[in-house]
Design goal:
The complex is a heterodimer of chains A (about 325) and B (about 250). With about 325 residues, chain A is α/β, with parallel strands linked by helices. Chain A has helices spanning about 15-30, 70-85, 95-110, 215-225, 235, 270-275, 305-315; strands spanning about 1-5, 10, 10-15, 35-40, 55-60, 90-95, 110-115, 120-125, 125-135, 140-145, 150-155, 170, 180-190, 200-205, 230, 260-265, 280-285, 300. With about 250 residues, chain B is of the alpha/beta class. The chains are: A alpha/beta (about 325), B alpha/beta (about 250). At the A-B interface, helix 2, helix 3, strand 7, strand 9 and strand 10 of A face helix 3, helix 4, strand 7, strand 8 and strand 9 of B.
Amino acid sequence: MILVFCELKDGKLRKPSAEALSEGRRLADATGMKLGALTVGATSNGAADAAKHGADVILTCEAPSLASYSSDAFAAVIASAVKAKGATVLLGAATAMGKDALPRAAARLDAGYAGDVTGLSMADGKLQAVRPVYAGKAFSTTAFSSAIQVATTRPNVFAITEKAAAGAVEALAAPAGDFKAIVKEILAKGGGKVDLTEANVIVSGGRGMKSGENFKILEELADALGGVVGASRAAVDAGWGLSHGIQVGQTGKVVSPTLYIAAGISGAIQHLAGMSSSKYIVAINKDPDAPIFKIADYGIVGDLFEVVPELTKAAKAMGIGAHH
Amino acid sequence: MKILVCLKQVPDTETKIKVAADGKSLDPADVKWITSPYDEYALEEALRMKESAGAEVTAATVGDDKAKDILRNAFALGADSAVLIKGDGQGDTLAIASILATYAKDKGFDLILSGNKGIGGDNSAVGPMLAELLGFAQANVVVKLDIADGKFRAEREIEGGTEVVEGALPAVITAQKGLNEPRYASLKGIMAAKKKTIEETEISGHAPATAVSGMALPPARPEGRKLDGDAAAQAKALLDALKNEAKVF
């Protein structure tokens, strides 16, 4: 069995989890294995959606004690579900929770782990993964030798497919005893916007933006295009009050949007490492020799303070944002 | 309080990655090796606890002889002891975590700090694996850490914000940028570090559970085009192209 750890939010499967589950279904079809989905929490509201994406079995571990996330508790539940079903492949999305719980579950299962993968296949009965290394400057193929193989899938890379399956629900017992660590509260910021790693459109600013206040024009463009705002390291480190959470690059986030617009970003090798797997790249820079133009699909040599507002105006006139 | 800081030696971020003739490893020519940037935040946090609470700081790395450079650097910054555990520090994460767990388990560490990922393999796995193997609590991608009365309160980055994790020591905490501002080594520290002894040991761990069977550079992107005219013309041309050519909208 291929077991996929799925996260629920507001009574639905989170998008990255639906992506991981869809990939699990493709791998299951290719090998004749069964596909299971696993949810853990105070409620399993929305877990039934896993059947839409091909889950033959849906395991739910529901208990009030699991209302808040705990690395050790969730990893223990995940590992025992893998053992209970005799699963040999464990997948999950490479979200904050996935990257926190699945490596821990892997160690508990004596299993190899490949994180943030962009491609999966089965070779000789075991998982094989393609994943970015050196922040995306290269891609490596990872082979497993352990009996159980664990991987997390990079958000926004694997297509979501719908393929109805039985989705037979099985309840799992909650773990007993004290948890070693637990989430006490969540401090939200950024107005509930989509995370950079899951965004389809990113409008990013660099040193050429000259100030934090100027990022407002990028927010307006992002809103018009249905996207979110990112920044280069130079901008984040410039003391303009920008959060490290929006930094794109080798020591920031590695993103894979459909569209990446880089405004006032020169294109240092470390920045490129974070966004070069974007499907389409647009560069706006007044320096025609900026390295970013070498990887841009569309380049605009010009003053971003003139171009960006024109883009926002034109996007609104074209009604682009209305479709997202 | 005894703190272990796990460091990894990685290629400098300026490095242009080249694949070696074997088709699966990094060509080491012209590579400059540094302490993984996220590990610097971990070491800095440990040094601050040394200054504020008298904690004892041990720096360790799994690596080859050249990894002694990052341990020498840890001494220069203020670590009390440093140990090179001979092994493949660039290899399988379960193997590395099990080596570190074997090293750490009988030494009474209250806290193990590391970067949330090593910017080589980028797996972000060793921290959580080490915590599981030692039976410790964990908090990863931490931007704020408070320790008091044998307990920790950590703020960690999640989508759309941060979450507060609380637990008891001993714990593995992995650092994110923003946890602190790492110090620079002083000349005095650098000179003193030259005289310090780096402990060397060899520990066998779990056999590698994964192996890299191939590595390739990303496919070259097709050449793009520049859009002409004034700002308004360029804007319109771009949106037309994105809509009709790229079909993004």
